[in-house]
């Protein structure tokens, strides 16, 4: 069991290293794309929330 574990540990993780190199780049690109959309939705939501609060205090 230990011998098997050692052999699998010495194998170079070719596919694993590729995915780990690409994953942060995809994550950053996704964040860069989603951040403006998230900000728009956040501003839209806060605007509605403020108008609701103004309405409650006006009545």
Protein described:
With 59 residues, the protein is mainly α. It has one domain (14-58). The protein contains two helices and no strands. The chain has helices spanning 2-10, 14-58. The longest helix is centred in the middle third of the chain and has 45 residues, at 14-58. The termini are far apart. The model has no long low-confidence stretch (mean pLDDT 74).
Briefly characterize the structure.
The chain contains 2 helices and no strands. It is an all-alpha fold and 59 residues long.
Topology:
Blueprint: H1 2-10, H2 14-58
Can you tag this structure with a few keywords?
single chain; mainly alpha; 59 residues
General shape = rod-shaped
Number of domains: 1
Backbone CA Rg: 25 Å
Largest sheet: none
Helix proportion of residues, in percent? over 70%
Strand content: under 5%
């Amino acid at each position: 069991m230990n011998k098997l574990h050692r052999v699998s540990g010495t194998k170079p993780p070719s596919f694993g290293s590729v995915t780990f190199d690409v994953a942060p780049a995809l994550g950053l690109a996704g964040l860069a794309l989603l951040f403006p959309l998230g900000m728009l939705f956040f501003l839209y939501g806060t605007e509605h929330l403020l108008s609701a609060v103004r309405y409650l205090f006006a009545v």
